[in-house]
Specification:
The chain is built from 14 helices and 15 strands. With about 425 residues, the chain is an alpha+beta fold. The two termini are about 30 Å apart.
């Protein structure tokens, strides 16, 4: 799962400016989904993908997950899989939290550092601060190293240790999140302290190279034929990035916004020998990932476990499946994240339209919500769709966003009070 990478960043989805040959090949050989929707921000998406639930059920506050949640890590571990998480954590707690959520091993960035721990290492890219299996890596272990490479090495080592057993790896990548800085593809990357969006293309291409290296590693160990690989991203691209498309269109990132450019993410699934090459317009949202991988592994969730998602595993292996009639996003950002607070809400994607909880309706082709469609009943077909969408939205429990803000403030106080 890439970080802050909208669909427009991949060549297979029509990007004109970025080179992504490995991901393009993965899409060509597997199944490319054109209509996958996350939430517009990292923490809500991470809680949703790990638990298979819409955020109104279990999202508490930004940078946090309830350590008592049941995640795909727990479910795979309980089914006998060796489990690992590698990459960006950013959900609070510590190593014990990660283990309680079902991961045997981990190598993560974006986790709280005790105040008494002194490290030169910092950030996520050059000379990164990394927390691996109960300890922060020493400065000498990460000096002159690139965070995404450290993560990939950990993943490959884990694969080698577990290659003769079932394993599940959740790989929330560090790339391509800001700051936009040089990658090791530039000889002077360690000497360049400049931060500029001009480096974004390098970061996209390095993401693709990491995917290629991982695929080669699996292939060299004859594991591709028994490994389901899913690639996606947590939300749309950063707002400072504008991408030129082969169609002539230019798409500006809308991370944090409940627009198409904030919600629409890539989704590629590859299962060598089992997933026929094809492209699908089926609607997918992030709650669908968990039931999909459970079905792939023939794992039954525990009795009483609630999932909002619908498996698209049948589509991965060439069947029609039961595609969604609609996809949904419930979005609560964080109270102190002022840029995003104004955009909390709910949105339903259905029949080529996008409807919000306040009744606003847009065509899904209107990426930035520039032309609100009137509520006039002159267009009978659209009026019928509007009525159907309103009926779907009405099935979700009532939700007071203002009340939630006050609850978030209290949760934040409790989290801070319990931090060392």
């Amino acid at each position: 799962m890439a970080d802050d990478m909208g669909q427009e960043c991949l060549g297979t989805y029509g990007s004109k400016v970025y080179k992504t040959p490995n991901l393009d090949r993965l899409a060509e050989d597997g199944v490319k989904f054109n209509n996958c929707f996350a939430t517009p921000l990292c923490s809500p998406s991470r809680v949703s993908i790990m638990t298979g639930k819409y955020n109104y059920r279990n999202y508490e506050v930004f940078l946090h997950i309830d350590p008592d949640e049941i995640t795909f890590g727990n479910l795979f571990k309980d089914a006998g899989y060796s489990t690992a998480i590698a990459g960006k954590w950013q959900l609070g707690g510590d190593g014990e939290t990660i283990k309680s959520l079902g991961f045997d091993e981990y190598c993560v960035n974006n986790i709280g550092k005790p105040k008494e721990l002194i490290r030169e290492a910092n950030g996520r890219y050059a000379f990164p601060l990394m927390y691996q299996n109960g300890r922060f890596l020493d400065d000498d272990e990460v000096r002159n190293k690139y965070g995404p490479d450290i993560i990939l090495d950990f993943v490959c080592d884990f694969i080698d240790k577990k290659k003769n057993k079932p394993f599940f790896i959740y790989y929330p990548m560090i790339l391509v999140h800001s700051p936009f800085v040089p990658t090791p593809n530039r000889k002077d990357w360690l000497q360049t302290e400049e931060k500029d969006p001009k480096y974004f293309s390098d970061m996209v291409e390095y993401t693709d190279q990491i995917v290629g290296r991982l695929l080669n590693h699996l292939g060299e160990r004859d594991l591709l034929a028994n490994t389901l690989i899913i690639f996606t991203a947590d939300n749309g691209t950063h707002r400072s990035i504008t991408t030129s498309m082969n169609s002539g269109e230019k798409i500006t990132g809308e991370k944090g916004m409940l627009t198409d450019a904030g919600l629409r993410v890539p989704l590629i699934a590859s299962y060598q020998g089992k997933s026929p090459s094809r492209e699908l317009d089926d609607l997918i949202d992030f709650s669908d990932i968990l039931p999909t991988i459970l079905q792939a592994a023939n794992i039954k969730s525990s009795e009483g476990f609630v999932m909002d998602g619908r498996s698209f595993y049948p589509q991965i292996i060439g069947r029609k499946g039961r595609p969604r009639k609609w996809a949904f996003c419930h979005y609560d950002p964080e109270t102190w994240f002022s840029d995003f607070n104004d955009h909390a809400g709910r949105v339903l994607m259905m029949d080529g339209y996008r409807m919000y909880h306040d009744g606003r309706l847009f065509s899904m082709d209107d990426r930035l919500n520039e032309n609100q469609l009137p509520q006039s009943s002159d267009d009978q077909q659209r009026a019928a769709i509007r009525n159907e969408m309103e009926a779907v939205i009405a099935t979700f429990p009532d939700y007071d966003f203002d009340k939630k803000i006050e609850e978030m403030k209290e949760i934040r106080k409790k989290i801070k009070a319990n931090q060392p």
